[in-house]
Amino acid sequence: MTLTEAPPQTAAKQPVRPPRKRLRYALTVAVFLLPSAVPLLLFTLIPMAGSLWTSLHEWNLITPMKWVGLDNYAYLLGSEETRAAFGHTLYFIAGYLPLVYAGGLGLAMLLNRAMKGRDIFRAIYFLPVVTSWVVVALLWKWLLNPASGIVNWAIGLVGLQGPGWWTDPDWAMPSIILASAWKDLGFVMIILLAGLQAIPKEYIEAARVDGANAWQRFRRITLPLLSPSTFFVVVISLINGFQVFDQVHVMTGGGPAGATQVVVEQVYNLTFKYGRAGEASALSWLLFAVVLVVTLVQVRGQRRWVNYG
Amino acid sequence: MAGSARVAAAALITALLATACSQGSATRTEEPAAGGKVTLRYFTFSAAPDHVKDLDTIVAAFEKENPTVDVQVETAPYDQYFTKLQTSIAGQTAPDTFELNYENFVTYAGAGSLLDLGTAGGDTDTSGYAPESLNAFKHEGKQFALPASFSTVVLLYNKDLFEKAGVPLPTADWTWEDEKAAAEKLTAKGVFGDFQPVTFFEFYKALKQAGGEFMGGGKSTFNSPEGVKAAKWLVDKVGKTMPTEAEIGGTADYDTNLFKSGKLAMWHNGIWQFAGLKDVPFQWDVVVEPGDTQKASAVFHNSVAASATTKHPREAYAWAKFLSGSNVAATTRIASSWELPPVSDQSVLAGYLKDPVPANRQAVFDSLKSIALPPVIARQQEMQDAVTQELTEAAAGRKSVEEALTEAASKVDALLG
Q1: Which of A78, A281, B145, B231 lies in disulfide reach of A54, CB 3.0 to 4.6 Å?
Q2: pTM of the shown model
Q3: Could you report the predicted ipTM of this complex, rounded to two decimals?
Q4: Is B4 on the interface with A (CB under 8 A)?
Q5: Got the DSSP string for B209-259?
Q6: A75-305 adopts what CATH topology?
């Protein structure tokens, strides 16, 4: 036995095997892992290594790569464009996260009650989640069309002039936030709904008996006990928020006047429009670093507010 | 035991299959087609959607003359074309032959992506080409592409709208002032007087019309009194005689549809639009674009190049030569009002004038008398985007024209390094 230093409780759970059997066991596990390990290696890890390698070069896709060391990173860190791209991404997150969380929570609370057609409503709200982003983005682009869109038509009915939405630099990001929150509402709702249903009714009952009003019950019982689900939603939404791309690319392409130029859109433009693949790869790694740090901070910070009851 | 071994084997095969599949799509191997035929890929932006059939005619004629070659046409819209071309070169799946425009030629020739067509075929007869077209696609003394077509931008106008508004028809002597006055009279409810996109391409031309230069001595020179005048010429139309960005609402081909539906009086656009205007229910004609202190018309040049990595250089050269210099190609282009063939033989070009619509086809040739070629730099796309973006800002009233030009100039200077 070489695994004697394993914690006693794990050792107790697992049957002790002779070395030959253990090798066989390991092989079996390896074979079962293979179908997911191979694609992971081929389509995630190898491309990641490739992008790291590219980020150390100057490459316009059509000439051979030229080694530049860390120059791309140095350039990006000092560049106004990078700052703007991260700024726009943070703007997106600041609008998107509260909206999608509050909306999802409201829906989850609503659909957690006994009501007619509850399952149908749950399905309807989940529908956008399983719809392709391109479809949703084109739909919202049409809804928010300043000249012929239905939203401005409705605003016009009450005698007001609707904004220029995605054609106006001030309104372009709100348009994208709106579409994004609408699409992801159902996802947040489902997670929070599961969380709500895991809260024992007795706690709410007890609070009611103690004279807590609806707000107090929500604030003191529901919200704290929902915190694991909230934590999950926030982590996932933040990561998705940093990677926002599809809706931006389809709705505005980073415009107008660069008002929605988020980080991943910038990566796309640098590579495919401007032939600056090295800088684009470096920018992807900067984004990776930021997301990693933000997620680590969250995981550490969760001890303060996430309540696993 | 036998069961788990079988599972293991199945899993292994699945994994191997996955690997094999991914490899199959990553490296496309070019196998000779059955019967010793060579498959030659050609990638183009100018054929779709209006001229795919005309290209097929040229391909059929070529294949008849070269029975061992099978030309495979692939098309993409212009705004996606260069992304796809770049990616396919990077992925080592570049088409054997492809179309390149004058603005992007330098980038690809300089990158070593192109086959030297001057030596690829062993035949160096280029007497059929107009020499200035041929020279446009030389790089460091080598013929990296053969000129295939050219086109110019003219002023298209809706005759019916002019007559209804009682405005005299445009003539070759018109200046910006005349155009502006007419546009104001023609703009009415549901009708726009003028349409000229606020872009890099319109700006460098308007700049030349105003007597300015885009760059000189390795620096931008468009932030000048002439530049301000040219930018104002474009920007001031927006929201007055021309729809705003919000009104256009990102609709594709908005201007084409506006003109075709009889709601646009004057339209700055290229001669490649002629074929699409065959069946409009109103009278229309063309005239050389009005100038300011001088006339200047935009000329777009397209060429056909071959990939440096093609396995069939001889066939690639033969196809490039046929598509650009053959009689079939020239007459097909002329008969269908596709772009013009860059031939030196004026009698071939004269055929272009036979088509009765638009009546003033002579304007297309007249526009060639004073042309404005786009400035070309290595970081072309970034320059075009930077200038267009700043002008758009000015058009939307978010910046003054002067501020926009100052910003654009500093961005372009940074790109020039």
Answers
A1: A281
A2: 0.82
A3: 0.78
A4: yes
A5: HTT--SEETTEE--SSHHHHHHHHHHHTTBTTTB--HHHHTT-TTHHHHHH
A6: MetI-like fold (1.10.3720)
